[in-house]
Structures are given as C-alpha cells and as structure tokens.
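so my prof wants the structure for this chain in the tokens format not the other one, which i didnt know existed until like an hour ago. anyway here's the sequence
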Amino acid sequence: MEGGLDGEHPSELPQLYARAIAACQGRDAASLGRVVVELMGRLNFDYDEAARRLGRLYLLALQGARRGRFRQSFRIFRSLHAVATPRGSSLKAPTSNRDVRGSTEST
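here's what i got, hopefully its the right format
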C-alpha cells in the first residue's frame, strides 16, 4: 500500500483506526497507546516521507490523549479512518464526538 503503510494487511487499517476512535471515546489513553504501537509497527519506510508524517500524526494524537485532549485525537483518527476506508465499505467509524470530552480543550 502506498502512503508509508505496510501493504501486507491494508484491510486491517480501518479496524485499527476504529479501535483508536473507540479508545478516544472511552477516554482510554492506555488503549490508544496500544493501538498507536500497532500502527507505528505497520509504517513502511520504503515511503520514508509519508511514513514519518503518519508517525508524527499518530504520536500527536497519543500525546493529545495523554494530556486529556481526546477530542483532538478523535478527530485525527476519524479523518484517517475516512481516508483508509474503501468507498462502499461496511466499516463505518463513529461520526459523533459528542461524548468525547477533553478537559483541557475548548469546544
């Protein structure tokens, strides 16, 4: 798969993003950290620039969650899920961040 991701199991990527979204909704930084570790392990540095950018984005989302900014992390992974999910797929990410509250972020 292009874009800096390991092409071995590209169909698992939307599922990983969905797990990250669920962790954000549950305000569970530890679970999000485990998903980020999996995502980082799938980066393909044959596409160096794209892999580095995705890695930075994953870390930004994790750092935000660890600081209580789950809404920011939710938005990042929701956007990534939308990009990674093939059109017409039955894999749908939650579209509402209504229950994702970040104590240190403004609405």
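also thought this was worth mentioning. Residues 48-66 form the longest helix (19 residues).
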